Hints:
Layout: H1 2-12, H2 34-47, H3 60-73, H4 82-88, E1 95-98, H5 112-118, E2 121-124, H6 135-149, H7 152-176, H8 190-208, E3 229-233, E4 248-252, H9 253-260, E5 265-266, E6 272-273, H10 308-317
Helix pairs in contact: 1-6, 2-3, 2-6, 2-7, 3-7, 6-7, 7-8
Amino acid sequence: xxxxxxxxxxxxxxxxxxxxxxxxxxxxxxxxxxxxxxxxxxxxxxxxxxxxxxxxxxxxxxxxxxxxxxxxxxxxxxxxxxxxxxxxxxxxxxxxxxxxxxxxxxxxxxxxxxxxxxxxxxxxxxxxxxxxxxxxxxxxxxxxxxxxxxxxxxxxxxxxxxxxxxxxxxxxxxxxxxxxxxxxxxxxxxxxxxxxxxxxxxxxxxxxxxxxxxxxxxxxxxxxxxxxxxxxxxxxxxxxxxxxxxxxxxxxxxxxxxxxxxxxxxxxxxxxxxxxxxxxxxxxxxxxxxxxxxxxxxxxxxxxxxxxxxxxxxxxxxxxx
Length: 321
């Protein structure tokens, strides 16, 4: 294992990256961080059990992880370039695009939409891909990428992102196995623990509801890793709510805001309730009114169906009259 690992580390330390002081800062040594960030994301995907074969797909999950790294190293407003990095890695010799589709578009493939239309994904050199299954190798590859392509001032932040990604993947898995309160051990303090549990809870809930709003039924996702639906705790954590999926709902931005502010509720039989307050203070509730009496979309697994006790708490403590 050591010889393939050494070869891999040498390749990772010599990626061909574009330098541009106008677009990039000293945090990335004025280099485009796309390739190393994509490789860090692939390592995290493998650690989380999302990659089981030698195929890296441009999935929603991969985009989400890449976005978290991207926000750590770039200025606000800079758009992630995952598609460009995905294609550019083929120049390194160990990454090969595969599964050319009939719907393939002409070069350049510079958006995730075009990438999805054109390729199934990428394979990794068969001498390197087994390293992704080995914890020590993943750790060493991650450290090499971070120390080579990123300045000291952000290296710890990138390691925190990796820790949060990995911890959240484990937390999510345990929640989906009906664990009430998974134990988190990081040695990095309560702030990191909260980020792990929040991300793990959020990804578990949106997976349970298949990115569909439980109230209005909307499901909208982009190839860049964005969803119209977020996870909402019925009883907030700060008021004693736990992270069991039965304390969660997947709600779109409008329904989530309305639920959190007492303008939507859910009754004893899982019917949507709408208080008179939605019509007061100059409100124009629009399409929200048609949800009254509608039964919410519930998870298939009975243990994850919203707790009647928690929904009653929401009606008593949050829902307006």
